[in-house]
Predict the structure.
Amino acid sequence: MALKTPVSRMVADAKARIREIDAPEAIAMADRDDVVIVDLRDPRERDRVGYIEGAFHCPRGMVEFWVDPESPYFKPIFGEDKTFVFHCASGWRSALTVDTLQNMGMEKVAHITGGFSSWVEAGGPHVGPKGG
Ligand SMILES: O=S(=O)([O-])[S-]
């Protein structure tokens, strides 16, 4: 069954509306006090392949609830005057997420185009797999 809106179209449309940052640029931004790197992946993925040092972990399933000050699940970090740079594994989930957050009214948001894998490839500092 072909879907009316395949996810590839959703991602392409989202990418046209959001700020995309490649891994070298994200690595250069990561140390800034006004930038927060946000990891949207599941805990299992972080355990299996590692994570960006210093990244804030926000599972994608909670993100709308964690950024909204009116939500009981609000996380104060998202109320700070910072630029939030989201990432997932390869940049698809983060594109959809940033598009959604822009729709909610967040302005200083971006995503890492190639996700965690591009960060590692570009030599970004990270913690390796759990137990490995
Ligand atoms: O993380 S992802 O880009 O593979 S959906």
Remarks:
- The two ends are 41 Å apart (CA to CA).
- Residues 88-93, 115 surround thiosulfate (CB under 6 Å).
